[in-house]
Design a protein that fits this description.
Elements (H helix, E strand, L loop, with lengths): L1 E6 L4 H12 L3 E6 L3 H11 L3 E6 L6 H4 L4 E5 L10 H7 L4 E8 L9 E8 L5 H25 L23 H4 L8 H10 L6 E5 L2 E10 L14 E5 L2 E6 L2 E10 L5 E2 H4 L1 H5 L20 E6 L2 E6 L8 H14 L6 E6 L3 E3 L4 H6 L3 H20 L5 E6 L2 E3 L1 H7 L3 E5 L3 E3 L14 H4 L1 H15 L3 E2 H6 L5 E3 L3 H17 L3 H18 L2 H17 L4 H11 L21
Parallel strand pairs: 1-2, 1-3, 3-4, 14-15, 15-17, 16-18, 17-19, 18-20, 19-22
Antiparallel strand pairs: 4-5, 5-6, 7-8, 8-11, 9-10, 10-11, 11-12, 13-14, 20-21
Helix pairs in contact: 1-5, 4-7, 10-12, 12-13, 12-19
This protein binds coenzyme A.
């Protein structure tokens, strides 16, 4: 079938749906929901059998839904309606939730139901639930709906779901989200911030200055400690601050000041936070789930796991340097395999575009950041004593994909999306030694195509084209166990010493053929042009990305129906 995906942005959920539909032989094209007339034009050009709307912020125009079956993905249980479905579910502490695929009609979210899929609701950030459980359930429900449509079945009217407990709920307002620091306990504060993460955040104030707060973490050491100073900020660690509640404290990692964009709190409030006490961890490497910790090390016999839980997978200059130091230290440990485990939701999305945008000289900060990324990638490439594995439990994009490729093996959890290309960010050339790492996996031509086509890859298709080495279990816990088992097998393999010797020889031969420094220099010469040259495309693209400017057209590499040679 020919399926048009009508969406607000090409987010990871939409990417995943497009990939899953293509895998089943459907022909897909993308159109951003920009204006009714543009949507109507896309439909006229593509002549779809079906329109699927994975992520919309407005209603589909009647001219479209009255003539074409339009399936809308709603992140709620049957009967649930309204624009804040997940926010309410999380804030109300629901244990089970769902995704429903409805047919678009005049009334929003009130059309007949094509399919629904249940999901367990963790106590976690809304964005995390969206990228994991909701995305998985949406894939299940959309595929079921498409199958029913192909089979000529009809959807079930809402009225025929008497047991449905969902209901119409209004847009959640900031008044509903407000934290009362004198009354709310830590669990309530965490729940409220989680329900608003990553958008819109909770309107609050820090140091007496109004802002939106994001990225809350529990702090167990103070749990149950009553405090007269509830609401007071008691210290900082790296980029986060610790704030008192009535029964303990919570960490807050990110904030957006009025008129600004989301930043690590210590960057959003550099002066105010500089005076706070530094609450260092007793041992940075020891995993401690009960406090704020972005880098951690776990050792299990001959295998070491390096965790880095960076918000949104963005890696600033400082974060790259700290991670490089941690990796250099890990390499001195008596382990044979190092697993770079990344974070739960993201492995890495490359340089930190928000931190760069906030810098006095974004060009200089881009330069510092890419060099710090490169140093980190180099530390990984240059690891002759261990086998290294990038284990992607979460998505990776741009430089983050090539950082992963700097490891000997890339294993991704099924469901993860990879975007191993840079051009979407204002024609950025990219570095991280990609010109060395990519062609040796997929050939020069394959590398050129990946960069040019700018298409997302599922974990499975990444293996098929040779970008990565394995697609493992989709369930996060099963993935973790699978990764540990495979890493242990490598560490225990009788030919490990030969494998390591072969790895060192290959590196030496590659170095003799063309030094890594030469790849880096060539890439950075292009990047210098991106950062400091007369063409401002990268700076303009970053400005819009960070501020989430609305798109004014669908990029042509996505809107295939707008290709000049397109035959409808
Ligand atoms: N720097 C700063 N923030 C980043 C980031 C980066 N490199 N990559 C992603 N983010 C942020 C997004 O702004 C968004 O912020 P939010 O919490 O305010 O919503 C969040 O991470 C999630 O991103 P989103 O685009 O919604 O995630 P996705 O999984 O749907 O899409 C990508 C993933 C990789 C396609 C997309 O995030 C992207 O294009 N990122 C930029 C990659 C890049 O160009 N890096 C620089 C070159 S190395």
């Amino acid at each position: 079938m020919r399926i048009l995906l009508l969406t607000h942005t090409f987010n990871s959920l939409t990417q995943r749906l497009a990939a899953e539909l293509q895998r089943r032989g459907h022909e897909t094209s993308i159109e951003f929901d920009i204006a009714d007339s543009v949507t109507a034009e896309a439909v006229a050009l593509f002549k779809p059998d079906l329109v699927v709307a994975p992520y919309l912020r407005r209603a589909i125009p009647e001219s479209v839904w009255s003539r074409h079956v339009c399936l809308v993905v709603h992140p709620g249980i049957v009967g649930d309606r309204g624009p804040s479905a997940l926010d309410w579910a999380l804030q109300d502490g629901e244990a089970e939730w769902g995704v429903t695929v409805l047919q678009a009609e005049a009334e929003m979210d009130a059309g007949p139901v094509w399919a629904t899929a249940a999901l367990p609701l963790r106590e976690a950030k809304k964005s995390s639930i969206y990228r994991n459980e909701v995305t998985q359930a949406a894939v299940t429900a959309v595929l079921a709906a498409v199958e029913k449509f192909v089979a000529g079945a009809k959807p079930t009217p809402l009225a025929d779901w008497p047991e449905a407990r969902g209901r119409l709920r209004p847009l959640m307002k900031q008044a509903d989200r407000a934290i009362d620091w004198q009354r709310d306990d830590s669990a309530t504060v965490l729940r409220k911030i989680n329900a608003a993460d990553g958008f819109p955040g909770v309107a609050d104030s820090l140091f007496g200055i109004p802002c939106h707060i994001f990225d809350a973490w529990p702090e167990a050491s103070l749990s149950g400690v009553s405090s007269v100073g509830a609401g007071r900020i008691i210290g900082r660690r790296e980029a986060a601050i610790l704030r008192r509640t009535i029964d303990g404290a919570v960490w807050i990692g990110h904030a957006r000041r009025e008129g600004g964009f989301k930043l690590p709190v210590t960057l959003a409030f550099p002066v105010e936070t500089s005076e706070l006490a530094e609450l260092q961890l007793a041992a940075w490497w020891r995993v401690d789930h009960a406090t704020w910790q972005d880098i951690a090390w776990e050792e299990s016999g001959p295998v070491g796991f390096l965790h880095f839980e960076f918000y949104n997978g963005a890696m600033s200059t400082t974060q790259c340097r700290r991670l490089r130091e941690a990796l250099a230290w890990a390499k001195t440990r008596p382990v044979r395999v190092i697993v770079l485990a990344g974070g739960a939701d993201f492995w890495s999305n490359g340089i930190h575009l928000n931190v760069i945008e906030a810098a006095e000289s974004p060009a200089d900060e881009s330069w510092n950041n890419i060099n710090a990324m490169n140093d980190l990638a180099l530390e990984l490439i240059d690891s002759g004593r261990q086998i290294t594995v990038a284990a992607l439990a979460g998505n990776a994009g741009a430089g983050g994909c090539f950082l992963a490729r700097a490891a000997d093996f890339v294993w991704a959890r099924e469901g993860v999306m990879l975007n191993p290309h840079y051009k979407n960010m204002g024609n950025l050339y990219g570095s991280e030694y990609w010109t060395y790492l990519l062609p040796r996996r997929v050939g020069e031509q394959g590398a050129g195509e990946i960069m040019r086509n700018r298409q997302p890859l599922t974990a499975r298709s990444a293996v098929e084209i040779g970008f990565s080495d394995a697609c493992l279990a989709g369930d996060p816990e099963a993935f973790r166990i699978d990764v540990a088992r495979r890493a242990m097998e490598i560490a225990a393999s009788p030919d490990l010493d030969q494998r390591l010797a072969a790895k060192r020889e290959r590196r030496a031969a590659d170095e003799a053929a063309k030094p890594l420094a030469a790849y880096r220099e060539e890439e950075l010469a292009q990047m210098r042009r991106n950062f400091y040259g007369f063409d401002p495309s990268y700076h303009v693209a970053r400005h819009h990305f960070v501020r989430k400017s609305l798109a004014s057209w669908t990029p042509r590499h996505l809107a295939r129906h707008r290709d000049l040679g397109w035959q409808g």
